[in-house]
Amino acid sequence: MVNLEHLKEYLENISYFSDSVITGDYIGTNQKRIKLKIVFPYHFPVVLPKIYVINLDELNLFIPHLEYDGLICYTPSNNVIFDRSNTEVITIIALKKAIKTLEDGIQGVNESEFRKEFIAFWDRQKNLQPIIFFASANDEIKTLEIFENNKDIIINDDVLKNKEAMYRFFPTNTEKSDSMDTLYLPLRSKNKVLPPNPRKGWTKKKLLNIVRKNCTQAKKAYFDKWINKKNDKGKLLILKIPISENNEVLIGYWLNATKQSIKKYTGPISPLYVRRFDFTYLLERTSGEHSFTNLNICIVGVGSVGSKLSNELANLGVAKMTLIDPEKFEADNLFRHELGVDGIKYGKPKLKVEVLQQDLEKKNPYLEVAVESMDILDIISSDPNYFDQFDYSFICIGDTMHSLEINRFFSKSNNKVFYSWVEPLGIGGHVLYIDYCKKGCFQCLNTDPNTGNIISNRSSLVKPGQTIEKTLASCRSAFVPYSSLTSREAAVKTVELFHKIVYKEITKNSVLTWLGDFKNFKDIGYQFSDRFTKNKNYFPTVESNFINNKCEICGVKP
Residue 497's closest CA among 285, 313, 360? Predict the structure, then answer.
């Protein structure tokens, strides 16, 4: 229990309403009596007390951080650390913060916070009608199309990828509608539009004034022409309001102005809750990085590493991807592959690239995936310029001889290529980045620096001469043993290096080596390479000093 005497410095008429509720009056600097209620949650003091303004309707307070039900948001809700041992101190500090929040609002000190909480205030309006938005939220004024899916109203434009995304979210019963005349209008970036008071909303006059004062002359002329147009449709207006850099809100209004212009319309205007499904917004809900959205990449080999890499790249925002792999998805792949049982339904294996394409596009509605069910060596034989269309290529096949041949092919090009492979039993892995305009290539790692002979990969963590392979019943089932955790880490490390390359944090051809769990490897009795023994305390490392003068491709020609 809190001693009420200690709260009298801040409140009048203090009393316990119940064991978990204290009430009292705070006299604001505006000389108004603000009735407060301090509620102690069941898990107090692990959970901070909630403080409400009881007489909110009487006061007609409209200030930042004051919720519709009177709750004062006096502190961030996540990861607040405090000493739970003194409940009285916690209560006093909470009360002081709540009072400061009120006073900052009353005195107009934090008016800018209104804009940061624009949607929070907007969404508190009564009778808010939801719509779903897929169109590109750019800076172009434009008319939009209306679609209906059962009771859902969907807004879209004529951009193909947005239409495709809409049909992936709503694959059935989505039909175009002519029921409304819809306009999308972006306001100036430097605007000072504040959210409406949820109890009052905006009038039609207020809405029109906000638009006219906060858009260019060209957009204003377009808007005036639109509101003066008469037709048999209702009017739907979507406004984009920039709040700050990389922060914008979309709001909307519906006006049932049939057979008359908006200018002469005297009926109600209905606010809309815009549920954003547009690509830019969804990307901003992650790291908000746009450097990857226009890249066209390909992945060669969509086994355990390549399949997981495809998902990581899609989640990064890559919007165009080609998958290359001739193999079918077998039950043997199930426990370390990104795909599940859909790849082998009814016991009929399907091509990895086709099943993964369906899986990726299902999970990432803005991702465009193309596939080639061919061996990469067949592709480069038949079409030597095939890989020129890609900004980056990722080779995840794990086979050294194939990789050396692919490296030889790329050495005659200007392509940018990542090679990603793992070590047996999950002891680690490597990612090699090569810009073929520069020195350093895959063969540099497989060339003896003294003799120039082809040898085991010099970056390897395993001592050469050991066969680390597992078979089940026959040699046809031989495979290199490692777990799904290893392939997941390989994919993550590949994306990490890719990220640094795209942002030019690394500009040289480089090899990244990372360690996994090597206890099992050691317990079985396998031997580590000299590189592992000398550097195990320094991994992960990114090295660019692997250029080999004896390399047939990069070395000094005699």
Answer: 313
